[in-house]
Design goal:
Elements (H helix, E strand, L loop, with lengths): L8 H4 L18 H20 L3 H14 L4 H11 L4 H14 L4 H13 L3 H14 L4 H13 L3 H14 L6 H11 L3 H13 L4 H9 L9 H10 L6 H17 L3 H15 L5 H14 L2 H6 L10 E6 L5 H9 L4 E3 L5 H8 L11 H5 L3 H18 L5 E4 L8 H7 L4 E6 L2 H9 L13 H21 L4 E5 H6 L1 H11 L46 H7 L6
Parallel strand pairs: 1-3, 1-4, 2-3, 4-5
Helix pairs in contact: 2-3, 2-4, 3-4, 4-5, 5-6, 6-7, 6-8, 7-8, 8-9, 8-10, 9-10, 10-11, 11-12, 12-14, 13-14, 14-15, 16-24, 23-24, 24-27
Length: about 550
């Protein structure tokens, strides 16, 4: 969205002198001059936003809003500044922009994108559809709506949108990769590869296209793409984001070819391009605070809080621990609906101040949850789930990092099922390290810190099992791989549902898979990922050392 120019721009921003020529606010002689000055300030704000100088862009928007609190373009630009790091603020500013100019398709589209960020998909789809009513050939809206349908398990609705977008502009950077994503989420890997090769041939977002392309198959012989990726990496003008994608692509191919030392070298280089930092000491204090607050006495004193519904099912664990596989098995059952990774619970936690930045004292946000508030929050959450699947007996939220919020789940949904996916610690961490994660997962940028983070995750899960005995079903990846049917039956029994043999053929289930596991869950269960870490034993010694007694060597 950052490169998109709203149609209001031509009306508000006119070519002219740079902002250096703007008179200070106190010397503006008339409302006309103020309007022109605002236009110039917003032009500069937009340029700052494009260059990722977000504080400068924000300050200029504030200057305009101080004189004109409802200036739609200022609200819009401010929304783009917030999007990605404070999505709630982005929502509010885009909504205000829409209120001021309700027939501006770009404002509706951006509001829709903000709703996607917070998993409010029905609202997102409503605004993106309206953007397309206003401007049917708005290619960005076609692509974002298509991506949203893929994310919400409706890839069949995404395909015609992308096909229309291809006809409008086959070389738009979002079209071919988006169409490929929709096809691969349906398991149509060969078709996806055709579109990705098309993008590469036309030099459309080449690093992303190569990364996505190598995910569509497993390589047994060296493909021509590998040397092409190496040539791309040799480009002296390559930026860090593109270099990261290409290193991951090279690493994936080399791993398939069992050239493990070379593969890991590329995975390491991918991490180094980002330069992400993670404060493990702050995180450790946050876990300390959670453990101190959530005691058996706290839960006993809050008996009767929340909603007694058995509909919610939370699948948690470290990323790459088998959460996607587990959800696919559960969602294969005719009475279960899988919603994928939802940010809904995290939004509730953030709203009450339950954040890592408040590591010193979590008692206040938790104590603010009264009996009535717990019921209100739970009922609103339940309505959100049931809007998508009103007849389902169980609805699965597969957000791995909800392992941090099990205490909140216990307060809001005392009868909810919680499935904890656990995997061999070294395998789990290596599987994380070799994939690109967002900055929110910066613990994954360094082998040593990744191991220390895993130890904190393990410590917290042991605490939850102590204070909520019998509430959490531990689904070990290795047990599932060893005896799929027996473990699958245990999972369905834990959900309180009758067994259905269709759960054994989860890989035939229709619907989309949007996580990095999309290839694996289209196959029957395989055992090649067990003890995979031994391929990299020499390279991962810092990880093994930091895991300590959790490393099963």
């Amino acid at each position: 969205m950052s490169n998109r120019l709203p149609p209001a721009w031509s009306k508000h921003i006119k070519p002219g002198p740079t902002s250096k020529a703007i008179l200070p606010p106190g010397r503006l002689p008339s409302s006309v001059s103020r309007a022109k000055a605002d236009d110039l300030l917003l032009q500069e704000a937009y340029q700052h936003q494009q260059a990722k100088r977000l504080e400068e862009a924000q300050d200029l928007c504030f200057r305009v809003l101080a004189r004109n609190p409802n200036h739609p373009l200022a609200l819009y630009i401010l929304g783009t500044v917030y999007l990605g790091y404070d999505d709630e603020k982005a929502l509010r500013h885009f909504a205000r922009a829409v209120g001021e100019e309700p027939r501006n398709p770009y404002y509706h589209l951006s509001l829709g994108e903000a709703y996607v960020k917070v998993s409010e998909y029905s609202q997102a789809i409503k605004h993106m559809k309206y953007a397309l009513e206003l401007q049917p050939k708005l290619i960005e809206a076609l692509c974002v709506l298509g991506r949203t349908y893929v994310a919400t398990d409706r890839p069949d609705l995404a395909l015609p949108l992308y096909e229309k977008a291809v006809k409008i502009n086959p070389n738009h950077p979002k079209v071919r990769p988006g169409l490929a994503s929709a096809l691969s989420s349906l398991g149509r890997m060969d078709e996806a590869a055709v579109h990705l090769n098309h993008a590469i041939e036309r030099r459309i977002d080449v690093p992303v296209a190569y990364y996505d392309l190598v995910q569509t198959q497993r390589f047994t012989g060296e493909p021509k793409e590998l040397q092409a990726i190496f040539r791309e990496l040799g480009n002296p003008g390559l930026d860090w984001n593109d270099a990261e994608k290409l290193h991951y692509a090279a690493g994936k191919v080399l791993n398939d070819l069992k050239r493990y030392e070379e593969a890991f070298d590329h995975f390491n280089k991918a991490k180094l391009t980002l330069g992400q930092k993670f404060d493990i000491d702050l995180y450790r204090r946050w876990i300390d605070s959670i453990i101190e607050i959530f005691t058996p006495d706290l839960f006993a004193a809050r008996s009767g809080y929340g909603n007694p519904s058995e509909v919610p099912v939370f699948v948690v664990g470290m990323p790459r621990s088998g959460t996607t596989l587990t959800e696919q098995i559960l969602a294969s059952h005719p009475k279960v609906y899988g919603m994928g990774e939802l940010t809904k619970l995290r939004r509730v936690a953030n709203a009450i101040g339950f954040k890592t930045s408040s590591a010193d004292d979590l008692s206040q946000p938790i104590m603010s949850i009264t009996h009535d508030l717990s019921k209100t929050l739970a009922e609103e959450h339940l309505s959100y789930l049931q809007e998508r699947a009103p007849t389902a007996l169980r609805i699965v939220d597969k957000m791995p990092h909800n392992f941090e919020l099990i205490g909140l789940i216990g307060l809001l949904f005392p009868n909810a099922r919680i499935v904890h996916c656990r995997r061999d610690a070294i395998d789990n961490c290596v599987s994380c390290f070799v994939l690109p994660f967002s900055e929110a997962h910066s613990y994954n940028a360094d082998l040593r810190k990744l191991g220390l983070y895993y130890r904190e995750y393990d410590r917290l899960m042991r605490h939850w099992n102590e204070v909520l005995p019998g509430r959490i079903f531990e689904n070990r990846y290795e047990t599932l791989v060893e005896d799929q049917e027996a473990q699958s039956r245990r999972l369905i029994e834990y959900l309180g549902l009758p067994w259905d043999d269709v759960c054994l053929r989860f890989f035939d289930r229709e619907g989309s898979v949007t996580t990095p596991s999309r290839w694996q869950v289209r196959q029957p269960i395989y055992r090649s990922s067990v003890k995979r870490w031994k391929n990299y034993e020499k390279e991962i010694q810092p990880l093994i050392e930091s895991l300590g007694d959790l490393a099963d060597i």
